[in-house]
Amino acid sequence: MDEQPRLMHSHGVGMAGHPGLAQHMQDGTAGSDGEGRKQDIGDILQQIMTITDQSLDEAQARKHALNCHRMKPALFNVLCEIKEKTVLSIRGAQEEEPPDPQLMRLDNMLLAEGVAGPEKGGGSAAAAAAAAATGGIGADNSAEHSDYRAKLSQIRQIYHTELEKYEQACNEFTTHVMNLLREQSRTRPISPKEIERMVSIIHRKFSSIQMQLKQSTCEAVMILRSRFLDARRKRRNFNKQATEILNEYFYSHLSNPYPSEEAKEELAKKCGITVSQVRKIERNLKATGSFHLLSRQVSNWFGNKRIRYKKNIGKFQEEANMYAARTAVNATSVSAHGSQANSPSTPNSAGSAGSFNMSNSGDLFMSVQSLNGDSYQGGQVGANIQSQVDTLRHVISQTGGYSDSLAASQMYSPQGINTNGGWQDAPTPSSVTSPTEGPGSVHSDTSN
DNA sequence: GTCAATGATTCGCC
DNA sequence: GGCGAATCATTGAC
């Protein structure tokens, strides 16, 4: 096989038309027998076209014959020209792609997280930034912090190792392909531009793999952050007292268990929201001027309670009975004492605004009274009658022969959940007091 | 370790 | 913006 360089640039391509062929023809083979040459070219093309239909041995033999053919250099040049034109037309549309916005986002995020870019404390800085962003992690969580930093540093290390591997693999593969193409250029027309294009394709492929690596790293960082910083991870069960307060309210307002914002705040205060939670909330209140956070946990609790109660009334029957009985006792007490409810001398009377004192854990009944609004509403005992009646009805029904839980659960339906699955008589939640109050009703005492 | 309970979040709807 | 519903994630009992 001849050893002349077959890269297209070395063939002096550039004449109009088919200069390679023309050159060959001018080299003494043109002019005399034009018909014979046409026949030759026709034969060569025919052989090329049918080469894939032949067996390997046959093809090899034909290939050898083609390589030795006197017209081969000219044909080779023609093919080079055609190919170059085609490749250039393809390339035209692919020049200078803009940077991928997704890749930019990933890069920015990795930089922000301290995974990409110079070390400069890397994970530590990111952990500190994350902590600052959440604002909820103090010195008491320094152990978790160091753990977080360690894990982030681990991610960073893995990311850089993998990145190096990818870059190395990319370079190796590019070199390999270039060598291969140079080798193949001996037997088929391959232009340097084509090689260049192939290299850029390889780089694009590897950069897409790199993007996957960056994506995975981002995901890992996100998971790590959620693992250490997600509020859900800080979940603590409410203490028994708080649960009882909330349950008292829920079951005593079963016909409309939608506490107003004020009621939620009041409940939140009265429940055992931890000191740190309260402090955090207070900080937020100062910073934002919003009072919604204060009752967020209460809202969550009621949201969960409503849906879980509705889903499985039977399961909550016993609990409902217990709280209903307490409230019933409360109601009975209210009825029995009648006017005394307004007496300033009565601990839970109007005179004791904000006297809802759950520190006296033995006085749940009192708590219910307060929560039902008696002590807030300045003697509007009647305003709370509806919820008391609700629970009384329930207790009376319970003692009236409902033994199976299904029947018992159905018993609740008319007073609480309607047939559509919604809460019956559920107007816009207004206050901590009975739903029978007007929509605009608010506590007279929210200073507590 | 399993599993039920439960607080918190997310999403779609109104 | 609040709610219901679904889901996640943790706790605590066993």
Automatic annotation (TrEMBL):
Region: Disordered, residue numbers: 1-38, 335-355, 412-448
A Pfam short name: PBC
Record carries keyword Ribonucleoprotein: no
Domain Homeobox: 229-312
Compartment(s) of residence: Nucleus
GO cellular component: nucleus; transcription regulator complex
Polar residues bias: start-end ranges: 412-436
One GO MF term: DNA-binding transcription factor activity
Domain PBC: 36-230
Predominant place of localization: nucleus
Homology family: Belongs to the TALE/PBX homeobox family.
Full protein name: Pre-B-cell leukemia transcription factor 1
Gene that produces this protein: pbx1a
